[in-house]
Amino acid sequence: MTLTVKLGLAFAALAATAALPGVVLLLGVAQLRSQTRQSLVELAGRDACLHAQKAVTQAAFSLEHHAIFPHDARFQEAARAGLAAAEEAVGGAALGQPEEEAEALRAESAALRAAAAPLLAPAPSPGGKPASSTAVKDAALALGGHLDRLIGAANEGLARRGARVASTVDRLAYVGELGLLATAAAAAGLAVAMGGAWRRRMSAVREAVERVGAGDLGVRIGDREEDEVGALARAFNGMVGELAILEDMKSQFVAVASHELRTPLTLIDGYCGILLSAARGPLTDWQRQRIELIHQQVTELLGLMQDLLDAERLQARALAPVLEPVEPEAVAAGVVESFEASARGKGLSLRLSVGPGAPRSGTADVRALTRVLRNLVDNAVKYTDGGEVEVSLHGDGETLVLAVRDTGRGISPDNLPRVFGRFVQIDDGGPRRGFGLGLSIVKGLVERNGGRIQAESRLGKGSLFTVTWPMRGARSVEAGA
User: Fold this and answer.
1) pLDDT > 70: what percent of the chain?
2) How far apart are CA 146 and CA 282, in angstroms?
3) CB neighbours of 46 closer than 8 A, spacing ≥ 6?
4) How far apart are CA 59 and CA 249, in angstroms?
5) What is the Cα–Cα distance from 353 to 332, expressed in whole angstroms?
């Protein structure tokens, strides 16, 4: 399953989580719409009843005045108009009522008209008896009471429906809040789950890449998923496998080539020593110069072969530390003494300083410590044209801190992070020598013994290399004093 499909399924689950409360909300809105429509119908029926009740009251009032003043044509016309308006209003009110209620309203309206008929008859003679309005009042009261009951029932219905609407709104609000929380929780859960899985898988890829960058070609990524990250893991494993094969072939080639080259170079070096000895007779100056030059070049080639072998052993982790008793000051003094002639030839001041806390003795890999110090001092003298080179020792407890400072050419900020790389030669304008393995071997030896090394430099101001080297059973200068 590809990562795209996984993301699609996750978003589908999130959409389903969000859609469920959405469906409930839609149903609730539909219910609210239905209740609102019914409320509007009830409200219209109540308003029609109110209008009819008002019209009936006005008609009864007009008929009562007409009964009092039967000879006044104005009251008669007003009574006729009021009665017609009342009939029309009652008819409108009856339209929104159930059939039984509507029939009762129409019957009561007809009773009111029948009671009003004697009053609306032609006016009696001046000596005649006027019509009574009692029947009209009774009919009006009966119709008005019926309308009151309908209005009260409508008000009760509107109140109940309003309560239902309020309850529905509360439920919808609760569902909306619950849906929002559920959606947020689902989104957060999916984000955490997928993000955690993605982070773990990519962390494994990053860790594997870092380990390969550090030289470990035995690392593999155990990701078997059938998605993009799994494909990347399989491609990475295949690439590292091929690199391991190439690295093995290279190591075998370097070992064989170094061994085959060391044999004739060692013979040449031995013969040069024999020729330079007095036992073989005197040599001319020209002969001695040429033989010494050959001897120097052979010695340098043997050193390069040893660098190649050591670099391969460090890469393969086959160069294990050999612990021996050691006095760091004596080792440093011996290394400084061996470079005094070279420094003096360049007009440099080479000195050794021992600070407080420097271990006086202890147990460490003497060969590796000496090799590290020789390489650092050799580089300092080689790349310093004037000034001084200082080797300093200090420490803290069972830790030796060894520093080599020079006033030489320095290293640019762009090149400083690269100085400990394999086969790296800094382009400083001078002639290039060796394979660029010296500082990478130094770093490998230091780290193989549990220490660390760091470099500081400013272009044209010199460099400072600081090595922290752990020592077992260390005794400081003060303790041994």
Assistant:
1) 83
2) 152
3) 150, 151, 154, 155, 158
4) 120
5) 10
